[in-house]
Amino acid sequence: MSNIYVQEPPTEGKVCLETSVGEIDIELWSKECPKACRNFVQLCMEGYYDKTKFFRVVPDFIVQGGDPTNSGSGGESIWGKPFRDEFHSRLRFVRRGLVAMANAGKDDNGSQFFFTLGATKELQNKHTIFGKVGGNTIYNMIRLGQGVIEDGERPKYPHKILKTNVLINPFPDIEPRMKIEMERTGEESEKKKSKMKATKNFSLLSFGEEAEEDEMDTEKVTKENRGKGKSAHDLASDPKLLSQADKSQLISKQEKTSDGEGSDNDEKLEQEINSIRSKLKRSKESSKKAKEEASLRLSDDDELDFGEDENPFEAERRRRKEQLQAEAKALSKELKNKDKKKDKESRRSDEPEEEKLTEEETKNDMLRDYHKKQKEFKSVAKVPKSKSDREAQTLAMLAKFKNKLSGMMYDSEDDEPEEKSKKETSKPVEEPKKKEEGEENDEDIEGDDWMKAPLVFDTDGPILAKDANTKDDDWFDIYDPRNKLNKRRRERDAKGERDRNRKEKMMKL
Q1: What's the pLDDT tens digit per position in 96-142?
Q2: I need a labelling partner for 412 at 20 to 30 A (CA). Which of 69, 182, 433, 498 fits?
Q3: How remote is the C-alpha of 457 from its chain's centroid?
């Protein structure tokens, strides 16, 4: 794979896509593919790809995105129309992690792009390769191709581009379209407004001599009342709107209205007070009835007597609580008595079973051995649950066995001279009859004499050569019949045997 990377030209420009699987760094080949790179960088600067989805996933092939409609048929370039393809001989679809423009045919590039998840040689000279995924972010890109896929190539839970950041801009002359629009709107708002005041055209039919008179009056009033507050009373000649009101008339009117309103308010207050009093009386009567009913209930139950100040509901609650406590105590006593009875019955049932077992054991030896072993296993101490207790138990057992072994070794050293003297003085005793092999294997080893025997292991050391002078039972002579020396030996041996045979026959005679 190293020869493939060496063939690719150096990159100029870098963009970071912040996606739902992490950051993905894209390094751009801006010299080899200037139009595709300029289009991609400007769209990233404008935030065109923000919150768009990777709507198409083909496992081990491509992951496609860059469509704001997330349908696969939307998106446009910065020029508002498709731009032509840009192929290069050193850029080939031979590995994963390449970034290329998606199109619907020749010279039909817009805003959509895709990542390669493997070698896609069938796309060569059909799509413009303008970048590659750099660094360890390629592992985040691989995660885009993982997930549940529905309807052929649509992911069930598509990943998103959250934000785009241009880290290295290879085209410093790029200006995002959003900024251009903002500048245009600013210029329109900053246009100078005319400082001309609006004047009435008296030649129109809607204005005439009346309008001129109104203007004259307003000018006079403004001159007289400069620095003072103005109102319709001062400007209009309506007799209903007086500039100075008669205070005596206003006071008399206010008194009349206040007397009428005061009488009405008093009547309303009296009615409200009477209704409140009636409600209070009803509530008192209902509370008295409730107390009487509670006292009647308590009188029926002679178990508890409460004072006059106590609430009857609280007294009833206490009484109920005490009853429940008494019932609980009675139930606990019954359960204890039942447990005691069960223990006694179990003890009684165990005794006759032992008697029965003993009767059966006398007839059946196998059953007797079985029950003995069963008792032995039951008598063995149970293994503790905690780890520390188990470790302590095993260490104690090992220490006990070690002490026993050391004691056996000391005893064997002391008994060695005594055994030798016994062997010398003792007479040979007839050997007991050998048992069958099956019986020897079935019987367990009894006693501790086996601990005195030394433990010897097979040595894996080199086997030394045998001495030719010492001939044992496993010694074999090899003679080669073709050797002349061996022939002479055989002849000598044959003569010797003949002589021996003759001597033996002579001795017999």
Answers
A1: 999 999 998 899 999 999 999 999 999 999 999 999 999 999 999 99
A2: 433
A3: 55
DSSP letter, residue 26: E
> Is 127 a residue of the active site?
yes
- What is the pTM for the complete model shown? 0.38
Q: Is 90 a catalytic residue?
A: no
Pick the catalytic residue: 64, 70, 140, 169? 64
SS (HEC) of 217-234 = HHHHHHHHCCCCCCCHHH
Residue 250 appears among annotated catalytic residues: no
Q: Is 88 a catalytic residue?
A: no
Which helix or strand (DSSP H or E) is residue 160 part of?
A: strand 160-168
Number of continuous H segments (helices) and E segments (strands) in the chain? 12, 11
The Cα–Cα gap between 91 and 8 comes to 6
For residue 62, list its beta bridge partners: 58, 116
56 is catalytic: yes
> Look-up: residue for tokens 């319709």?
232
Structure tokens at 187: 């210029």
What residue has token string 């294997």? 441
AA identity, residue 170: P
Choose, from 56, 92, 96, 159, the residue flagged as catalytic.
56
